[in-house]
Amino acid sequence: MRYDLAIIGSGGAAFAAAIAASGTGARVVMLERGRVGGTCVNVGCVPSKALLAAADARHVAAAQAFPGISTSAGPVDPRALIGGKDALVAQLQADKYLDLAADYGWEIVAGTAAFADGPVLDVELSEGGARRIEADQYLIATGSAPWAPPIPGLAESGYLTSTTALELDRVPDSLLVLGGNAIGLELAQLFARLGARVTIVEAQQRLAPFEEPEISAGIEAVLGDDGITVRTGTTLARAGRDGTGLAVTLSGGRQLRGSDLLVATGRRPVTAGLNLDAVDVKVGEGGEIVVDDQLRTSNPRIWAAGDVTGAPQFVYVAAAQGSVVADNALARADRTLDYTALPRVTFTNPAIASVGMTDAQVVAA
Length: 365
Known about the structure:
Elements: E1 2-8, H1 12-23, E2 28-32, H2 38-43, H3 45-63, H4 78-104, E3 107-116, E4 120-125, E5 130-140, E6 144-146, H5 154-157, H6 162-165, E7 174-178, H7 182-193, E8 197-202, H8 213-225, E9 229-232, E10 236-242, E11 245-250, E12 255-258, E13 260-263, E14 267-269, E15 302-304, H9 315-331, E16 343-346, E17 352-355, H10 359-364
């Protein structure tokens, strides 16, 4: 069977494209090598916000200030907490992804896809065997993955990422967080409110460095009230472990110790194994797939959407791009997106919410 659109990936961009394409009667197939749903439902938005809400509930119980009302926060049962998170993820994955695909009628193939000349996709099926898929148009929507900088000793000493941190069945005794932007801030407050001692190390001169300076000052004060230590204008020079645990050396020579290290220094596009050279798809310096303003790659039959393009890493951006690709690839709609007034939220408590450019960005423009 030849498809109208073959999609690699199953996250926000992929599902938006599949829904839009299926709605026009197009024949759609989706390839996924891991868990259907992509980053947001499995290891990003949904599990992190569920655990943030739990941590906030404990914090309120421990520190509520109303006279005449007595509350307390006992010890955390991490296994039960993670079990509840996993149940929520499984429910949403079924309701919002698997059942939705079945309702629209597109096929999901479990396997690892790579391009071959044609273009066609050769798929190593998860259950064994192989399959070749041919389509008129292709969409790469493989997302992004946590990235760690090349710091001496980091890999050998072991570290958490935003994915593995949400799978911990224990609360770290003392957590060092490398990175003071959205992910680092959210997870730092999460674990602090679950009872961990937390220190944030940020290379820029302030937390939330891409927000207004007033926001940075405000969130640092909030985190200070939560007992979190903040060290800005500092990088990690070396990491290692000895008989007493984790030891890291900062750029100024100061040493910090802890039980765990969380690296929250950003994410990078996932393109490994796609064999893009075989179909002349160009990749940028950051590993992102290069696209034009209509999201077409350097191969006229292959498109890309979501984090893999280096676009702002928000699920709603990925979804918007996915729908644009469906229209452009199948109907030649020539649609583009305007990112000027893009909203963004960091789910600390209180949350950081912004729209569009900062004052500094406006001046620079």
